[in-house]
Amino acid sequence: GINAEYGSSQQMVAPASQAPYLEPEERRALHAKYCIAHDRLHHGAHRLTHYYEIDGSESVVGWVMGNAEIYCTFSPLVSRPVAFNNIDKLIKWIRKEESRFFILGSGQY
Asked: Which of 25, 46, 63, 101 could form a disulfide with 70 if both were Cys (CB 3.0 to 4.6 A apart)?
């Protein structure tokens, strides 16, 4: 999922759930891992810009950049450099397509 902030607007975009995260309990477990990644990125004396952790079932990556954060899950067999390279490509694509995913300006009513 991607969290982004534009002005005072906090926005999030995420793909539809896919295997192996189809059941509610699996989605809750994944959300808990993303919460841990968020906590590690934002709390403590030294804030991090990247977080990477592997367990037996997946690799979880958190990435903070400017006004946005990305949380991704990879196979546990994907190395850190490969995961980071893929996220870098994703960031470039998101920046190019940003207006398709986020409301960039506040509308006038």
From this structure: 63
